Amino acid sequence: MPRPSAAGPPPGDAGTSAPPALPTTERGRRMRARLLVAAREVFERDGFLEARVTDISAAAGVAHGSFYTYFGSKTAVFRALVAETMDDLYASMSTRGETGPPDGSPAEVAVHRIDQANRRFVAMYRQNTALMALFEQVTTFDPEVRAQRQAARERNVGRVRHSIEQLQRDGLVAADLDAEYAAHALVAMVNGAVHYWLVLDGDFEEERLVATLTRLWAQALGLPVHA
What we know:
The chain is an all-alpha fold. The chain folds into two domains: 47 residues, Arc Repressor Mutant, subunit A (Orthogonal Bundle), CATH 1.10.10.60; 141 residues, Tetracycline Repressor, domain 2, CATH 1.10.357. Helix content is 65%, strand content 0%. The protein is built from nine helices and no strands.
């Protein structure tokens, strides 16, 4: 897996040109999607700094010039990949829609939802491990990708805060807990642990990691956890 580097962006690919308009035809949308798939393949194989537009075009089976109909630079196509991936990743942490065990107490249902959300997040992160490693690299020198990262994280924190506030309204979590700060801390805990495990090759066993994250999350909110 390509590892993050402290190096800056390659000359001539600052990604500052205005992005082409999104395609309006079905053929155009298919071609753009094809380029995104090819770009991901090349980025994950070669790393961001070594990837070239010519390689992306070749992997997509299109002429070099066709790339620029859809993306202004390799940085632009990477930003598009980030935009596609980050919301899906963080949305997986939402507990909305989870029903929980039919015979469980409200607190047990809440813990079940937390556990299922953590499992979805781990599964999504595993599917995108190489891209997430590159994402960390590019945030060091691309302000727009860094802003995308921050915006996606803030949306996720908002979802977690909303779930905590609902638990407070239901009387399951102490009303004096600062839901905003708690959401930031819990998101950082899960994201940091999973990043360490999958990107930095931490020596974790998946089931133990997920169970531990769920237990810590639940206990931080004062929800009962049965070992």
